[in-house]
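Form 7-S
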Amino acid sequence: MRFITRFTAIAALGLTISTPVLAQSIPCGGNFSGFMGKVAEEAANRGLPDNAIRAVVAAAQHDPQVLRFDRAQGVFRQTFLEFSQRSISGSRLRIGAEKARQFSAVFDRAQREYGVPAEVILAFWAMETDYGVVQGNFNTVSALATLAHDCRRPELFQPELFAAIALTAQGDLNPVTMTGAWAGEIGMVQMLPEDILERGVDGDNDGHVRLKTSAPDAIMTAARLVADLGWVANEPWLQEVTVPADFPWEQAGSDRLTTVGQLRALGVQARFGNLENDNAPATLMLPQGRNGPKFITYRNYDVYRKWNHSFVYQASVSYMATRIGGAERYDAGSPDTGLNGDQMVQLQRKLERLGHDVGGADGVLGAKTRAAIRTEQLRLGMPADAWPTPELLNRL
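Output:
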């Protein structure tokens, strides 16, 4: 799944819609039918066709299960080793190789036109839907309408609801039968309607963008999206490294941008192959601290951050892409014991009391929590590798 917010204008069926799509334009909450009535009024103001508006409004139902999924994203509380080992199976790697051969001409076109290699697209395809096998069975417009009505993130989902109306108008979304993920993503690589509307590519030349059923459409659209997110052709994104025990661990982390040369001077070496040139921007990533696996991330890794804000997702899907491309299995190391969910919440609350902004005590080890942990480890004279341990929790 991916959530990106941005300003955009819809252009579909020759329509010109002057109002920026990205904005919460309708008050959230209240009676759902009344809310959808306001959606219809706003959609008409934006120039969307009446028949598409009526079809979406008639199909949309409030779905409490969508809200339950939205509130319980426990998968991202797993560690990198847990998440990556469960999601990167021998079967997925094997199927990825088969898909690469089956659609070799499409992948060649994607790399030629957008600069994105096959393994990057294949990793997203595998992680999002197991190569299209598990695309979700939530009615798409009901999911989007429920989340647009909900007051947690209406500024994200209201624009997507209008985009779904535009897709309905151009014949690429049936509001009654279209199904997908609980958050409204559609198709083999799970894209939100705005992305499909703006970046959809007709890979099989049938006149439509059908990401649920057409692998060429999904591959080409994913390649275009990845390119638009900032992909730089012919550059790496992630590489496993070895790091000496006396490395200054506070220099690691996504907010510690440096260069390959500076990391090399501190003893960082490629576990296999060679590092990029010394001037290449890079960071040292320690998903589970100084005793776990270690990677250098290059500037193309930023695309994974933009695709999904979850650290374990980013790290896992980017690593999967290297494996599909032929990289060896990582050295898992022997990470220090981490914290369970309740302990993580306790730690985050302690960090908040110490004045740190951790983005809320949600039990998820995100970038803000890692930065706060590193600060406190330095203060306490501990190795500052941003990995939460029972020792740190007790000492705080």
